[in-house]
From TrEMBL:
Residues 44-100 form the 4Fe-4S Mo/W bis-MGD-type domain. Its cofactor is [4Fe-4S] cluster. Keywords: 4Fe-4S, Iron, Iron-sulfur, Metal-binding, Oxidoreductase. PANTHER family: FORMATE DEHYDROGENASE-O MAJOR SUBUNIT, TUNGSTEN-CONTAINING FORMYLMETHANOFURAN DEHYDROGENASE 2 SUBUNIT B. GO terms for biological process: anaerobic respiration. This is Formate dehydrogenase major subunit. GO terms for cellular component: cell envelope. It comes from the Bacteria. Its EC number is 1.17.1.9. It is an enzyme of class 1 (oxidoreductase). SUPFAM superfamilies: Formate dehydrogenase/DMSO reductase, domains 1-3.
Length: 188
């Protein structure tokens, strides 16, 4: 490569000698940056979602290729976040692909020190049995001569990423079971 060719390939020379004096377009691109492609350009589809971390509900674009999540970015169409994500929301790809994510149910027995894997059906049965027992033990028909028909044996704290319909169903379920302590992270 001669000196003249080298100088002509220099971005500052291209900026002042070409049609891009501000260096915002072709003058700023090198051969290396010409080869770079966005991580999301190979995605098969984009799924709209909501960040699961807090009650703000920032919009996310989830990029999927071959059934696997490849990238998560802020949704510029979201009226809540307008394409921006906080550091936790920006790192939410780790929720789906991170090596620390558990893909199975783990259980630690009372007074135990080790976690043991359980199958999902066993875990669900254990939860149902405990809900029924907590309801039975904590049931109150009356308090101070006032009929209350409730239980203080369990409560519900919903997540911020649940939509209105899901929150409605959870409220109905827990109310039907007699719970009075029903809250949602979006209001906390």
């Amino acid at each position: 490569m001669g000196v003249r060719t080298w100088i002509e390939s220099w971005p500052v020379y291209r900026q002042f000698s070409g049609d891009d004096p501000l260096g915002r377009g072709a003058a700023a691109k090198s051969a290396g940056t010409e080869r770079i492609r966005p991580r999301v350009s190979t995605a098969d589809k984009v799924v709209k979602s909501v960040c699961p971390y807090c009650a703000v509900g920032c919009g996310q674009d989830v990029y999927v290729k071959d059934g696997e999540v490849t990238q998560i970015e802020g949704d510029p169409d979201s009226p809540v976040s307008r394409g921006r994500l906080c550091p936790k929301g920006s790192a939410s790809l780790q929720l789906t692909t991170g090596s620390a994510r558990e893909q199975r149910v783990l259980y630690r027995r009372p007074h135990g020190t080790e976690w043991e894997p359980l199958d999902l059906d066993t875990a669900m049965e254990m939860i149902a049995d405990r809900v029924v027992e907590a309801r039975r033990q904590g049931w109150q028909w009356e308090q101070d001569d006032v009929r209350v028909r409730r239980t203080l044996g369990f409560a519900s704290l919903g997540g911020a990423t649940l939509d209105n319909e899901e929150n409605y169903l959870i409220k109905k379920l827990f109310t039907a079971m007699g719970a009075v302590q029903i809250e949602n992270q979006a209001r906390v």
